[in-house]
Each structure stands twice: as C-alpha cells, then as structure tokens.
Please model this.
Amino acid sequence: MKRVLRLSLALALPLLAGGCATVRPWDRDLLAEKEMSFNPCPMLHAIDEHVYFSKEASMGGQDASGGGCGCN
Amino acid sequence: MSGKVVSTGVLLLLSLAAPALRGAAADPPLAAPFDLPTSTGHVVLDSLRTKVVLVDFWASWCAPCRQSFPWMSTMAERYGPRGLVVVAINLDKQRWQAERFLRELAPPFLVAFDPAGKTATAFDVRAMPSSYLINRSGQLVFAHRGFDPKDTNAFESRIAEEVLK
Amino acid sequence: MQLETSSGGAAPTGSPALRDRLHKAAIALLLLPATARAESTPANQVDFTALYYGEQGRTQVYEPVVRVTRLFGDGQFLSAQLAVDVITGASPSGALPTGTVQTITSASGRLRTVPAGAIPTANFQDRRFALDGDWHRPWGKLFSTTIGVHASRERDYQSLGVNGKITADLLQHSITLTAGGGYSDDSVFPLGGTPIGLSDGTAVSDQKNPKRVSVLLFGVSRVLTRRWMMSLDATRTAERGYLTEPYKVISLMEPFSGVPIAQVTDKRPSTRTRNSALLSSVYHLANDIAYTSYRYYWDTWGIQSSTLDVRYRHRLASDDWYLEPHLRFYRQSAADFFTAGLSSALAPPDFATSDYRLGQLATMTLGTTFGFRLGASPALWTVRAEYIRQAGDSSPPGALGVQRTFDLSPPINTFTMVIGTSFKF
Model:
C-alpha cells in the first residue's frame, strides 16, 4: 500500500507542478490541433488494446468498458 | 391615512435617489488603450472616441472565431453607417496563417495584429474568441467570451442600444 | 495616422462583386429565423478498420470493424460499432514437452501427435461478434458525459455490459477531471462442458458459468505548457465468477525425471482485482508530436507489469499525411499460482495454471503507421504494420528434471497489419 502511494505521488508530480498557472487562451494554437490528444486514433488504439489484452495478463488503463472477451 | 403619506413619501425619495444609485453602481471603466498595426497602417483606440467600437480577439486556429466572422461582418455593415467600428485583433503567432484566413474570409472590417498578446493581456482575455463593446465615451460596457449563435441576438441588441445613444 | 473605417470606403476586399455577395448574404442572414441560424447541420462519419494478426506458427486473427457516428452540431454524438473476430490456429495448451514424440488428447477429445521437445499446442477456431453503442454529450462549456453499451458473443462466451464517464474542465480548460465506471455480466459455456479444475477433465458439467466485472476509473489531465500536456489515469477492475481457462491443461510430471505422465485441468481463483496507473504525455515539437506513456499494473493474482509506449508522429508536407514509428516495451511477472507443471508425487495446490500468458513475459513491439489522404477525397487513410516479439521464462518455477533442459517459452514472433479509413458525409 505504501509502495502504491509513493508510486502514485511520483507519477502525479508532473501534473501538480505549476500550481494554478494556466496557458493563456491565445497561446493555445498548438493545443488546438486535432493530433494534440491523448487518443488521436481511437479505432486503432482499441484494436491495439485488444491485441495486447489477448497476449498478456494486463488490462486496459484508459477505458471503463470491460472488453468482454474470453481471451484473458 | 398617515400610512399612505409615509409610503408615498418613501416612494418619492427612492425615485429621486434611484438615478444617483444607478449612477454610483454602474460606472464602467475605460477600455485599455491600444495602438496596433494593421495591414496598411495603425489603429489607435483613443482616436475612435465618439464611435462605438466592437473589439474582437481572434486567431486562425480557433474554430468559433471562423463562425463569428460572418456575424461581425453583418454588424459592421448594418451599424457602420451609424457609427460602429469593428476592430478584429489577431493573435496568431505566425502572420501567414492569419493572412491565409483573411484571404479566404475577406472581412469588410478592420483587422489589427497583436502577436505578442499585449493588448489581449490588457483586456484580460480568458477565452478565444473574446468580444468587447466600447461606448462613445471609451468605456467598456459589454464583454462576451467565446462565440455562440444563440447569444448573437442579445449581443446585437446591446450594440444597437449603444449606437443609438 | 491613417484610419480605415468599416463602413464602405477603402474596403480591403477589393472586388465590388464580392462585397455585393457579402451584402446579400448579410440580408439573407437577417431574414432567417434565429433558431435556424443557431444550429450547425449534423454530419455523419464512418470509420472502418481491418486487422490482420499472425503469430508465427500459431494463431491467426482477422478482425474487421465498422463504426457509424452521427455528429450533432453542438459536440454531441451517437455511434454504433460492429466488430467481427475470426480466430484460427493453435495455441500452447499448457502441457509440457517430452524428449519423445507425444500423443496428446485435446480438449475436444481428439488425439494429436506432438514432435519431441516442442511445446504442445491445441488447435482451435472461433468467431466473435461484438456490438457497441456510445452516446456522448457536452453539458455547457465545462462538462460532458459518455454512456456506452456492449454486447458480444462467441461460441463459448457471451458478454453484456454498460459503461459511463463524466468529464469536468477546470482552470480555464487547463485541467480535465474524468470519472467513470462500467459493469459487465458475462457468461462462459465451454465447448464440451465445464471441466472440474485440477481434475483429469473427464467429469464435465453442462452449465453456464457467470463472470461479473466492475470497473472504476479516475483521470486527471493537465495542459502544462503551450506544447505539452500530461494525464494520469487510474483504473480498478474487480472480477468475480468463472475466471478459469477451461481448455488449458497442466502437466503432471514424474518427480525426478520431469517426464509428463498425465494432465490436469487449469484452475484459477474465482475473484481477481486488477489495478492500473497510466501516465501519458503528449508533446508538440516544431512540427512533430511525441506521445509517450507508462503504465504500471498489478493484481491480486500476484502479477505485476510495466508498459512503456512511445510514438513519434512525423508530419509530412501535405496536410493529414504522416509517418508514425512506434516502440513498445512490456514486462510482466508470473501469477502466484503459475507453474510449469505439477509433480505427481505432491498433493495438488489450490490453484494452478501453465498458461504462458500468466507467466513471466517480455514483449517488444516495433512498428510504424502511415497516414494519408488521396487527392481531394474526403477519406482519411491509415496503414499500420507492427512486429511483436514475445518471450517468457525459459525455465519457470515448477520445471523438474528434463524440463529444465527445454526452453519452455521460446520467443514468438507476431506480425500485425491494420488498414483504416474514415470519412464524413
């Protein structure tokens, strides 16, 4: 449990750094591009996840949909 | 009998005081001055005193900005003859992207360039696009964040109100 | 000090014909009722992807997927998706190799011969149909919800599920919070009946075995700079019910020689809690974008894994054309009850499996994706080719005698190819 907490904090640190500073609205030109997304190709990503889910023991990370196949 | 006198008296007092109260609560601040380049020269806000000015902050990469241009053109054409000046301040970091956008949309109003965002900071722009209405005395009387076709009627009423003063 | 006014005068547009058109358009706008002007016209989108997956000498999968989405002007959308999985080939059964040619009885009761030293495999084929529906709706400028339903069916497995999530934007859209959940009601009905775990597999029961899965997820994403955004997503999945692989077997070995003499069926616990923490980063360089993510996973079966995934989108001269190389490294530790085989002299444990997917594994992927648009066509194309190399512990715990001389988890090479197209109409 302690290990989990330490790990979570280490991972969360980059997100917490910067406090309440925001990027100004007119500086969001690059962020407005459609490729600036955590999941720019959802269909391809879903296929990838399915491939690895069938070959490995681990599960997802980004979706709440169970997947629902008898392969793992 | 005395109750009626008292209540009438109170009402009279209130109606006398009302203009003063209204005046004290709503004295809009002066809009931040600016002097920005346009494609042919400069635009200075101070020189637009006695006109009603609609200032709009936009960029080529902002989808709602694209939607707002036809509406701003309509406002410019409809109220321009009666003293409205539209100044669309561009915030693109790369001028060629703004120019490509302008070639395509060809707006009939003034476009100024603020790539460093100094005027945007002075106006405390919080969203793209942001529009500000400045009355004939140079005061900032109305601000709107973003662009939504549903809000244009209310915005236009506000413009008409200022233009008719 | 020159001042251009917006009312007539020196218009920057030039041609009087254009100004006339603009004027007419303005009048037309005036005449339209406000509500008609307010709505953007809905659009439809079709996405089609097809996967070919080929494990060298083992499994082959073909999976076409088609998705239709109705996009409403305000950011709301409704979509339906159909996926078909056609799986054929062979997969390790969990049995151990011998130094001699072996005759194995497969789960369906047929006799097969296996060459000496080779990992015994079992043939299988299956076809799976999956139907998914999603409804996404923004609420004002800060919130959005997504609700999804899922139904899938294959010869021995059925799944029905619902899922949902809410997002909220804070700090002028710099931070996005996500909370979601899902519930799945699955049913496992193995071909030939359900064998009793850790038995010789002859006694079967003809029943539907339920499996219920609940998922909870939380995510935080943040725009850090003009070029960089990161997110942290945590999921917790609880599975309860029939979690065993009914066709997998475990070899019973002679205690000293390690020669397999019999088989028993796989048996896994009836509960499993899985956790994952995923840290992702998207960084915009001068023209290219780098996507990196690291996921740490752990579950109550004793498995821990780490995944590092890197993609580099190199944008080419034309819009929508890009080349995206991809590298993925994966490592997992074995489940507590994973064993190469069982000694015939010892009493069987509570749970055991020889399924290589629950053993120690290392996977490496190298691939590339090419995206393009043909001329003025509205369709966007993507072609992806990947090479996956997977290897396990060549001498896992439980290997006795002669088994220690065999490579019980030789590297498996897999080649995948995906073609995708997407267009609006």
Summary: Chain A has a mean pLDDT of 78. Helices of chain A lie at 2-16, 42-55.
